[in-house]
């Protein structure tokens, strides 16, 4: 099981080779692939987003399970923010989603997440 960080989806949609090489095989497996609602928010919040970009995002999101930010996940994220004060709030929610779903987080941003001992991280 995997959780995709926002940057992983962005690089995948841009066709960056390292992201495509990691994510494409994962999407073709039967294992669940999760995305936090925080990632969904971040993807749709870019000011330069075009209609074509929105369509690509919609297609990508249709291939994954969007995990809502529940109270339980929010509490895990809060614990992470307390323990790792430099971890940004959106990143703490995405990490909490991966921990809650017991999945490996796929990200380009390994530096911010590697401090979380119990979190499995796969770089792209």
UniProtKB/TrEMBL annotation:
Entry binding sites for Mg(2+): 5, 91
Q: Which cofactor does it need?
A: Mg(2+)
Q: Which InterPro entries does the entry link to? A: PIN-like_dom_sf, PIN_dom, Type_II_TA_system_RNase, VapC_family
Keywords, A to Z, come to: Hydrolase, Magnesium, Metal-binding, Nuclease, Toxin, Toxin-antitoxin system
Q: Which Pfam families match?
A: PIN (PF01850)
Matching SUPFAM superfamilies, A to Z? Answer: PIN domain-like (SSF88723)
- Looking at the record, the residues that make up the PIN domain are 3-118
Q: Which GO terms describe its molecular function?
A: hydrolase activity; magnesium ion binding; RNA nuclease activity; toxin activity
The source's superkingdom equals: Bacteria
Q: Does the keyword Cell membrane apply?
A: no
* E.C. number(s) listed in UniProt: 3.1.-.-
- The first-level EC class reads hydrolase
Which family is it part of?
Answer: Belongs to the PINc/VapC protein family.
Function noted in UniProt:
Toxic component of a toxin-antitoxin (TA) system. An RNase.
Protein name, as recorded:
Ribonuclease VapC
Q: Which gene encodes it?
A: vapC
